[in-house]
Predict the 3D structure of the following.
Amino acid sequence: MPLVALTGGIASGKSTIARRLAEHGAVVVDADALVRELQAPGQPVLAAIAAEFGPEVLTVDGALDRAALGAVVFGDRERLARLNAIVHPAVKEESQRRFRAALDADPRTVVVYDVPLLAEARGAGEWDRVVVAHAPADIRRRRLVEQRGMTEADAAARIANQAGDDERLALADVVIDTSGTLGETRAQTDELWRSLTAGP
């Protein structure tokens, strides 16, 4: 059964699509959740981050201080590249392990990898289908301000820090337009599910 990459910019409605696919029976592997797990205390990834960037990126109880790490790498391409060289291979290995486990448990399973930074990581090779959640940047900026309480400037900066819409859309096999209502997004997701589970 298909291995699907689901991606989209911040506030694009990607999580809504992932939840709907899970309701239909897909196994959803969340890249952000994986990163958090791999960066937990006691994990080799966290030890490598602390060795690379120093103890100041840890809290007093030994957890990752995300704000401190962000301050260290933000705007510094070389340091960000070093962080990515620690985190990305570990995430790839663990995600592949979870894909295999899901397909071993049921070869007919639809596996969805919920991955915000697919375009940034240039990863379009292994997927049977790449699905892009898409809403124009002005709509996403408004959602960040109204739903997440960001300032206009912060919202614009977060969007600017990600791949552009054209870059993401160039990877897409399927585009789900999330600029309308929740019901419209769900209806498109239901149609996607039908196409993913249709017989040969």
Strands lie at 3-8, 27-30, 111-114, 129-134, 174-177.
